[in-house]
Amino acid sequence: MKSLLAIKNLKVSVEDKAILKGIDLTIEPGQFHVIMGPNGSGKSSLSYTLMGHPRYTVTDGTISFDGQDITTLSPDKRAQLGMFLAMQHPLEVEGVALKDFLRQAYNALYDGTPRQKRLKEFAEHLIAKLRLLGMDSDFAERSINVGFSGGEKKRAETLQLAVLEPKLVILDEIDSGLDVDALKTVCNALNQVKAANPSMAILLITHYTRILNHLQPEIVHVMQDGMLVASGGPELAHQIELEGFKGN
Fold first, then answer.
1. Predicted confidence band at 120 (pLDDT cuts at 50, 70, 90)?
2. Which pLDDT tens digit goes with each residue over 77-112?
3. How far apart are CA 17 and CA 6, in angstroms?
4. Could you tell me where the DSSP H helices lie in 82-204?
5. Which end of the chain has a smaller Cβ tally under 10 Å, C or N?
C-alpha cells in the first residue's frame, strides 16, 4: 500500500537560513500523528513547507503525497490533491460569507469531477456538516472570521475541513489561544469529523499535551532544532508532560 504522505530527508531554508535539517516522516491513510516541540523548533515551518508556501525553499529531499512527488507543486495543486492546512491565525475577510467561501472552495477543489455540486446540492452538504458539528446555520452566514472569538475561528476551520473532506489535515497549533471550554468544543468537532471520515489522516502540531486529553493520536513525534529527535506512541506525550522536551 502506498503511503499518503512520504517525506524523505527534507531540508528547508528561509533566506539562506536552515530551518528543517533532514526530516523523514511517513503518514498512512487514516493515521493520526502529532508533532510536539518547543518554540522555534521548526514545527510550523514544516506545515507551511508541506503546503508549498513560497517563503520556504526546499534545498534537499522530497515530499510525496498519494504517490505523487509534490516537492515543487503550487499550494492550490496540493489542495486539489487533498491536503488541508488549518492555520494558527486564520485571516479575516470582511463581506464574504463563510458559506459562499466554502462553496467556491469546494467547487474549485472538485471542478470537473463527479463530486462537484450544484447550489442546492452544496447547501444540503453544508447543512449536513453543520448538523454533524452541532453548529447553528447562522454561523455560516457570517463574514469569514470577522468578529469571531478564538474558539469560533477554530470552529470555522473544523467546518471547512468537514465540508472539503481532504485526505490529509494539517493542524498548526489549533489549540493556540483557546480556553479550556473552547478547546474541548474544537476537539469534539474534530473527533466528529474524523469519525465521519475514517480514511482522513491528521498531522497535529502543538506545544502542549493538554489537547491530547481530548484526542486519540496514534504516533507522537518530538521536533527540536529542525529535526525529529524522537517518535513513539501516546505515552511519549505523557513523558514530555513530566520531563519537558529536554528529556528527549
1. very high
2. 999 999 999 977 788 899 999 999 999 999 999 988
3. 24
4. 98-109, 119-132, 150-164, 180-196
5. N
